[in-house]
Amino acid sequence: MNIRLFSTTAFRLTIIYAALFSLFSAVTLGFIYWSLRDEIESQVDARLRLETDFLVNLYKSGALNELLDAIQQRNEVDSYGRFYKLESEGSDLNEGNETEWPLKIKSVRTHSTQPMGDVDKDLPGDNPRATLPMRVAQTQFSNGLKLTIGHEISDEKALLDYTFALVVGGTVITLIFAVLGGIWMSMSVLRRIASISETAGEIMSGTFSQRIPVTERRDEFDTIAVKINQMLTRIEDLMESMQQVTNNVAHDLRSPLTRLRNRLEVTLLENRSDDEYRETIEYSIAQSDGMIHTFNAMLSIARLEAGLDKTEWENVHMGELAGELAELYGAVAEDANLIFVERINSNPVFYGNRHLLAQAITNLLDNAIKYTRVGGLVGIYLSGDDQEFTITVTDNGPGIPRHERDRVLQRFVRLENERKSPGNGLGLSLVQAVVRMHGAELRLADNRPGLAVSLGFRGRGINSAAA
Predict the structure, then answer these.
(1) What is the pTM of this model?
(2) CA distance 379 to 211
(3) C-alpha angle 154/159/165, rounded to 5°?
């Protein structure tokens, strides 16, 4: 047995439980024992009272000789394990001292049974006297006579002793099995904890693909293991995303920084006119704005993934929000010589961050207009109710190949045909972060031709506190 077992909380709780359970068992069995003892004493006392009442009635009727004969016969027969004795001021009237009897009959004063004890009784055979357990009833008459009746309770005492032994043995056995069962359960719990600890150690050493084993029992440990595994998967995704972001930042920001440095260095090689210096400064500001925009987008995504913007949530009328954005981008599409279609069929209410939801839809409309050729079609559609609704933005541009649709949701990912167009590859990543934060679903589909991006919302409804 591992010494570590005795220092665990599980073992200490097991010992406490075993002690309490054994105490409860002992109290229950003790109650049974004392109840049995009381019942035996009550039955013996009832027999003694009946016998006492019979002999007292003989005394009251004045049949003294009959009383003595009855006592003598009962002592000789002794068929029920009883003995009888009538005394007057220390002398035993059963020994033939009839002349010392008081001739005046008086009433009975009291009679009562005595606690269980040992009373001497004459026994036949080689052992004429022995000490046996007796239950005694004594009756004191008003003229000094005292009637004593004893009932042997050897069998009853043997039964009580056997019952007491069963109580003690049952308590000890209960305690032993409770402790053994508790140790077994504690070791089982420790094995599960050791498995979790071992997996955590491997993860800490750098093996992020490790997961806590989940059994088929589906108990509370498995529930915790599933949640921890989901957390580990999320952490692994974030770390891979961080690594990817680091690589992409180094790749995507190196080029504008290099261009900016080269432009400034060339400008300093010789004297320039004020216009040339102004042009270089304007170019540097534009490049800096682009990098600031990139960092702001990264910061927004980080805040969304950390859940820092959940304090600004409210009930948002999604139909009104989509209509406002459709009106704004309808004018932008018209300036770009595009056909813009708006179909807002309902106005569901959704509890969320209005600014972030608007930013997600704006990014989709920006992409749709940016990648659609002149004369193309861009549309925004909304259908559903408060429990479930969908917002879809479509275009008939080049679209996204099926095998690239998961990859374009990652940060700084841009397809080859997009490299020459302005952007930083963070638009769809921001949309994905907003959708995930609101418990919605982002779906990319083929619009034949072009791309259809759908945002599916369900289950949120209206927040009563904000209504």
Answers:
(1) 0.47
(2) 44
(3) 125
Residues shown for the chain: 467
Provide the terminal-to-terminal Cα distance of the chain, rounded to the nearest Å: 61
Instruction: Using the Cα atoms of residue 406, residue 408, residue 412 and residue 414 in order, give the sign of their dihedral.
Output: positive
Q: Which residues are 149's β-sheet partners? A: 84, 137
Q: Which domain holds residue 225?
A: 220-304
Residue 215 lies inside a defined structural domain of this protein: no
Residue with tokens 């920084």: 257
Residues 294 and 314 reside in one and the same domain: no
Q: Helix (H, G, I), strand (E, B), or coil: what is residue 83?
A: strand
Residue 28 has pLDDT above 80, yes or no: yes
Residue 108, CA distances (Å) to 56, 101, 432 in order: 7, 16, 103
Are 212 and 199 spatial neighbours (Cβ–Cβ below 8 Å)? yes
In a domain, 464, yes or no: no
- Flag whether 405 is in a domain: yes
- Please report which confidence band the pLDDT of residue 115 belongs to, taking 50, 70 and 90 as the band edges: very low
What CATH number is attached to the domain comprising 350? 3.30.565.10
Cα four-point dihedral sign 17, 18, 19, 24: positive
Q: Are residues 397 and 276 in the same domain?
A: no
SS3 of the chain: helix, strand, coil, percent, to 5: 55, 20, 25
> Which residue reads 């559609």 in tokens?
381
Token duo for residue 318: 């999604």
Question: Phi and psi for 96 in degrees, rounded to 5?
Answer: 100, 15
Report how far residue 202's alpha carbon sits from residue 452's, in angstroms, rounded to the nearest whole number. Answer: 43
Q: Does the pLDDT at position 467 exceed 50?
A: no
Contact 431, 363 (CB under 8 A): yes
Quote the number of domains for the chain. 3
- Residue 274's Cβ-count burial label (10 Å; 0-12, 13-18, 19+) is exposed
Long-range pairs for 35-38 at CB < 8 Å and ≥24 separation? 36/159, 36/160, 36/163, 37/160
More confident residue, 95 or 389: 389
Question: Please, which residues have CB within 8 angstroms of residue 73's CB and are 6 or more apart in sequence?
Answer: none
For the residues of 166-186, what is the DSSP string, one character each?
A: HHHHHHHHHHHHHHHHHHHHH
CA dihedral angle for residue 287, residue 289, residue 290, residue 292, rounded to 10 degrees: 120
Q: Residue 69: what residue type?
A: D
User: What distance in Å separates the CA atoms of residue 340 and residue 329, rounded to the nearest whole number?
Assistant: 8
